[in-house]
TrEMBL record:
SMART domains: HTH_XRE. This is Helix-turn-helix domain-containing protein. It comes from Micromonospora sonneratiae. InterPro entries: Cro/C1-type_HTH, Lambda_DNA-bd_dom_sf, MLTR_LBD. It comes from the Bacteria. The lineage of its organism: Bacteria, Bacillati, Actinomycetota, Actinomycetes, Micromonosporales.
Length: 269
């Protein structure tokens, strides 16, 4: 088991106030939700009172904090972390690995990837080569960042027909993730990706085109344009940080032409 927090914790009250303000919740609202007095909550934020372990967990629950940040709050308050952080290859994660591999294999001949909270590629099925064959080798050196490989001018970007639309969609997802997590590395990644060139308009809001119900990925594959939509799966009741931060993104054909091309590529009838 690895350490959940690698840096010295900041004062508990400061961290709590930071998260409360990030969530746009007043002291009064949080005190009602957590069933503590506003006066006591104010004292906790200013360091005049020390919260109990249960109170820390209750406040973190009401603020909907990621498990990693709940551990940080506990450490800042002087308590041991509550949630483990096991690497995906740890023995106790064998059932998770088997489940993930089953999902990836069962999704063939369509691409699917597994990423962590910072969009690092953890696993993928063989069909991902449809996308990665166009990516420069230096972008595929571990740790591979899926967003960087997608939007970099030497990555998938030159082959994405609707680059402006898809790029805006991905950056919007990343901004929401930054807002939820407050992760400094994701902030830096968002700034890096925003600087990548794009010669197409980038919509500020996802709006459907004629007949569209999802934001599509239109990918140039040889002489054909393949169209996909994607779904994201997460584990529903995680109590481990690694598991809570795991996402499986699966790409599906959005039309019969794409489905036929993918089956033909895989040698399936």
């Amino acid at each position: 088991m690895t350490s959940a927090v690698a840096h010295p914790p900041r004062p508990f009250g400061e961290l709590l106030r930071q998260w409360r303000e990030r969530r746009r919740v007043s002291q009064l609202e949080l005190s009602i939700q957590a069933e503590v007095s506003t006066r006591h909550l104010s004292f906790v934020e200013t360091g005049r009172s020390t919260p109990s372990r249960n109170m820390v967990l209750q406040l973190a629950e009401q603020l909907d904090l990621p498990l990693r940040e709940r551990n940080r709050l506990l450490l800042a308050a002087g308590y041991a972390p509550a949630y483990s952080e096991n690497s995906l290859d740890a023995p106790q994660m064998s059932a998770v690995r088997d489940a993930v591999r089953q999902v990836l294999t069962g999704h063939e001949p369509y691409p699917a990837v597994v990423v962590d909270r910072r969009w690092h590629l953890l696993d993928a099925n063989a069909s991902l080569a449809l996308f990665t064959d166009t990516v420069a080798p230096h972008l595929l050196k571990p740790p591979v960042n899926v967003l960087r490989a997608s939007l970099h001018p030497e990555g998938m970007a030159p082959h994405i027909v609707n680059l402006g639309e898809w790029r805006a969609h991905l950056l919007s997802r990343l901004r929401r993730q930054v807002e939820i997590s407050g992760d400094a590395e994701l902030v830096a990644l968002a700034a890096e990706l925003a600087d990548y060139p794009c010669d197409q308009p980038e919509p500020e809001v996802d709006l459907p085109g004629p007949g569209e119900i999802v934001v599509p990925l239109r990918f140039q594959y040889g002489d054909a344009v393949l169209t996909f939509f994607s779904t994201v799966a997460t584990f529903g009741t995680p109590l481990d940080i690694t598991l809570a931060e795991l996402s499986i993104e699966s790409f599906y054909p959005a039309d019969a032409q794409t489905a036929d091309a993918l089956r033909a590529r895989a040698g399936k009838p």
